[in-house]
Amino acid sequence: MNGYDSALFENRTVVVTGAGRGIGAAVVVAFLGCGAKVVAHAGRDLSHTEGDLLSRVPQGARSRLTLLTEDLSQPEGGADLARQILDRTDRVDVLVNNAGTMGGRIAAGTETREDYDHILDLNIRSVVALTGALLPALKAVDGASIVNTVSISGRSGGSAGSALYSGAKAFVSAWTKTLAKELAPDGIRVNAVSPGTIMTDFHRRYSSKEKLDATAAAIPLKRLGTADDCAPAYLFLAANALSGYMTGQILEVNGGQLMP
Ligand SMILES: NC(=O)c1ccc[n+]([C@@H]2O[C@H](COP(=O)([O-])OP(=O)(O)OC[C@H]3O[C@@H](n4cnc5c(N)ncnc54)[C@H](OP(=O)(O)O)[C@@H]3O)[C@@H](O)[C@H]2O)c1
Q1: Smallest Cα–Cα separation from 18: which of 95, 83, 90?
Q2: What domains are there in the chain, each with its CATH number?
Q3: What pLDDT digit, counting tens, does each position of 99-134 carry?
Q4: SS3 content of the chain, % helix, strand, coil (to 5)
Q5: In the annotation, is 234 catalytic?
Q6: 3-state class of 217 per DSSP?
Q7: Is the pTM of this model over 0.90?
Q8: Which of 72, 129, 186, 248 has minimal CB crowding within 10 Å?
């Protein structure tokens, strides 16, 4: 299915959120290619799943994939998704917290309570709630791992109108490090992938072609990233065989756009 070790995650169960399209879909395809069972939260519904995800999953791997939906911008979204996951599996080896979005470009001083609730509930509250609810399952296996999706904007500040989103991703970066310290005694490693400018529906929604062309020209590798550029970083951070001595780290995948 890909160039990865097809037994790297054999007999392991991996949960991925925001997996119906974009980076999450590429991450699911990569884990399936490494032999994992995957419980994938597709998003709010399955409308993007056929084109972006299922069309890339070989027939032989379909039986290892379970699809769920949940609106994670609702205050109880994380807890409700956890219940759905635990109804389907009692084993969780890897949790990839990837669902998220900017929720629109919002000029400073014009934020509404709805903007604030939507962006923070989706990018922070649901992540903390889902992780907390899955901790007993993660603690019950040997060598569990959590990989969060943060963002270059959590470190750089992002571009105009992204303040709440960028701040939320900075929160998840700091939370990743705290959790790494707190869960180390339980044998759980916690790391994050920080994508740069990745050409998914995210930027089709929020960035003009001119802005993206200018961004690509300023990136040392002279192009925007793809979802498939990001997926190997998740495999690496989730696999004890590859990154067993790494925890609390933020792995930048950005073509050299930011070198912290
Ligand atoms: N693309 C980039 O340049 C970039 C850079 C840095 C970080 N990131 C982060 O990478 C992650 C994946 O983004 P992407 O680029 O792959 O974007 P994407 O193609 O828009 O995918 C986002 C995923 O999150 C899900 N999601 C969004 N709002 C949701 C909600 N209210 N409830 C449940 N699920 C929801 C989407 O589901 P629906 O189909 O229901 O919308 C989708 O599955 C996000 O956390 C994003 O913030 C992206």
Answers
A1: 95
A2: 13-253 (3.40.50.720)
A3: 999 999 999 999 999 999 999 999 999 999 999 999
A4: 45, 15, 40
A5: no
A6: helix
A7: yes
A8: 186
